Amino acid sequence: MIAVALRSMSRFLLVLLAAAVAPRALAADTVVVARFSAAHPGGAMPEAWQPFTFARIHRHTRYSLVADDSGTAVKAEADASASGLIRLLDVDPAALPLLEWRWKVESLPAKSDPTRKKGDDYAARIYVAFRFDPARASMAQRAKHAMAKAIYGEDVPHAAINYIWATATPVGTVLANAYTDRVRMIVVRSGAADLGRWVRERRNVYEDYRRAFGEAPPPISGIAIMTDTDDTAGRAVAFYGDIVLEAR
Question: Where would I find the H helices in the chain?
Answer without folding.
Answer: 9-18, 139-152, 205-213
